[in-house]
Structure formats: C-alpha cells, structure tokens
Amino acid sequence: MTVALNTLILPAGEDAVAEAARALRAGGLVAFPTETVYGLGADATNARAVARIYQAKGRPAFNPLISHVAELRAAQRIGRFDDTALTLAHALWPGPLTLVLPKSRDCAVAELATAGLDTIAIRIPSHPLARAILAAFGKPVVAPSANMSGHVSPTTAAHVRADLDGRIDLIVDGGPVDVGVESTIVGCFETPMLLRPGGLPREAIERVLGRALIEPLVDAESDSAQPLAPGMLTSHYAPRTRVRLNATSIAPGEALLAFGAPVADTESASFVMNLSAQGDLSEAAANLFGYLRALDAKEATAIAVMPIPNHGLGEAINDRLRRAAVGRE
Ligand code: TXA
Ligand code: MG
Fold it and tell me: How far apart are the CA of 272 and the centre of ligand 1, in A?
C-alpha cells in the first residue's frame, strides 16, 4: 500500500539543500535536478528507503539503480576501479556519465539497489544543486529518473510533480535541466561497453579511451535480452500517444515533432513543436522529453517525428525515440 504523502516543493537554495539532506537521512524520497534529468533520490545504504523508490515509481524490483556520489573517493568506496575506469572518471566526472563496475568488497549500498548483481552503477553529477545535496548528505544516493515507471523522464520540477505529487517527500526545484537525456552508461568490463547511449556523446568517451566502445551482443535495453543493463525495458520512454519515426510527411490529425526545417505539409498537423529549428542536437536533447510530454497531451492520432542525425547526442535521442515508438498495449 502506498501512503499519500504531503509533497513539499522548495526552490533551489541553502534551505532546500538542508531539507533534502534531512529527508534523505530520515529515509525519505527527494526529487532533485541533475544536469541530465530530475532524479528521485533515496539513501542508497537504507534498503527500506530504496524499496520506497520502487514503490513510488511503480518500478519492477529487478531494475538496478545508479548510486550518485559527490567525489571520486566516495565512488571508490563502493566500486572497484581498474585503470580504464579511473581514466574515464578523471577525464569525464563530474558529468553525464555512469560507470558500471564490480562492487567493492565492503560496499555499503543496499543489495536491493543493485538488484543482487555483483556490479554497481556509479555517477558523479555536475549539477551544482545535486552536488550540494550529495555533499550535505555525505552518503551515496540512489536516484532513478523522477517519473512513474514507463513514463517520459522529467526535465522540470513540474514534470516531477505531475507524476509523483503525494508519493514522495520533497521536490527541489532547480529550473529546467541542461542536457535533457539520461547519462551515458559505460560498462567497465574487459573491453569497455556502451550499455546506454546518453547525455555524453560516445565520441567524447572514445577520445579519452583512445579506442571504440563495444556494443552489447544484444540490445541491453530489450525485454528479452540478457540483463547487462537489466532494467532497461524497451518501452521505457513511451508516451500514451503512438509515436511514428522518420516521418517525411504528416497525416491529418498527427502532431509533428520536427527537427531542422519542418516537413512541407505542416498545415495539416494538429500541432507542431520543433526540437531545434537550427538543427542543434544539444538543443534537441534538452527539449526532447518536455516536448514529448506536451505533444502527448494534445490527443493527436500519432506523434510524427522527423529523422534526426545519429551522431553525437543524436545517438541518445534516437535511442529514446525508438523506445517511445514501441507499442505498449
Ligand atoms: O541521468 C541519469 O542517469 C539519471 C539521473 C537521475 O542520474 N538516472 C537514471 O536512472 O537514468 P535510471 O534508473 O532511470 O536508469 C538507470 C539504468 C537502468 O537502465 C539500469 O538497468 C542501469 O542503469 N543499471 C543500474 N545498475 C546497473 C548494473 N549494475 N549493471 C548494468 N546496468 C545497470
Ligand atoms: Mg528512467
């Protein structure tokens, strides 16, 4: 049973940081902005607090969570870093990168948070508010995206509220996020593997490594795949409205999610939003989830999405759009 909570919403600031740390210490659930998307945080070392995350999100309990920490030393207490992992951490943290590593022997993170795996996903976010909360709390914080399971990830406090009001203790409002898609996940296995494209382009990681990231043998996010990144369900990012990809024209009644110069027949669209009229992929990533939510509310027959180039942040954008397009009946 989920007890209705009185969800407090505080603007960014010292008071909010102190209240967030207090709520986390008490085993509460706190939504806060990171540079990628808003996260729903809980004390990673408190199994009951972690359990409340799954409950609040309606999330399948086999889905492991990312542990967020403020600094590398804290990360090294919960994960075992080899040379590759250290190289990536030094070059790219803080930032939109999650590393999957073997758990340390005395890892204090609750088994439930790692879904019983012997690996752990760790991230040091760069958002100043996230960092302030992590520093004030002083322990690892697990934080999935702060949305109901299966919904689009939240990029504003209002999105969080729409999904989780009455189900969590606190929302810290730090305004819209910068990046707009979740972190890139790299498995630090014998050969580093791209488990999830995300807010840090693959090219930036490969430059640091001096080699290409390998792909999982199967889609790490598909339901039937062996669980390398086990929680990543194919339909994870689905809006309610059907999503049609690579649209080069639109049917009457469809809403259009454009990129660059819109397709010719936009007059017949029921609604048009442009991810980036200039064709800028970072602007498109930042707008993606908010625009999907907005178009989903328009009662269109479908959301037609124009093609988006697959380099840089385009890889993560196309990944999320493909998942949004998978039928959910
Ligand atoms: O940008 C982000 O990463 C956001 C912000 C809040 O930090 N968080 C986020 O968390 O996207 P979530 O829970 O929505 O996605 C975490 C992903 C899941 O797909 C999960 O399967 C994968 O990380 N994961 C977690 N632990 C793992 C592990 N030990 N091995 C492989 N994949 C893991
Ligand atoms: Mg998520």
Answer: 31
- Separation CA 140–CA 98 (nearest Å): 14
Give the model confidence (pLDDT) of 263-294 as tens digits. Answer: 877 788 889 999 999 999 999 999 998 899 89
Task: Write down the pTM of the prediction.
Answer: 0.88
Q: List pocket residues of ligand 1, CB cut-off 6 Å.
A: 34, 36-37, 39, 63-66, 98, 100, 114, 117, 119-121, 123, 143-145, 182-183, 185, 195, 228-232
Output DSSP code: residue 316. Answer: H
H-only helix segments in the chain: 14-25, 47-57, 72-78, 83-92, 128-137, 157-164, 202-209, 281-296, 314-325
Residue 283, SS3? helix
Closest CA to 62 of 188, 151, 149: 149
Peptide bond into 94 cis (omega under 30): yes
Ligand (nearest to CA of 163): 2
pLDDT digits (tens, 9 = 90+) for 112-146: 898 878 999 999 999 999 999 999 999 999 999 99
3: pLDDT confidence band, cut at 50, 70 and 90? low
State which H helix or E strand residue 30 sits in: strand 30-33
- For residue 209, CA distances in Å to 92, 111, 186 come to 11, 31, 12
Please, are residues 40 and 144 in contact by the beta-carbon 8 Å criterion? yes
d(C-alpha 308, C-alpha 47), whole Å = 41
Size (the chain), residues: 329
Which two structure tokens, joined as six digits, stand for 37? 């998307």
Cα–Cα nearest to 229, from 191, 181, 184, 285? 184
Q: DSSP character for 113?
A: G
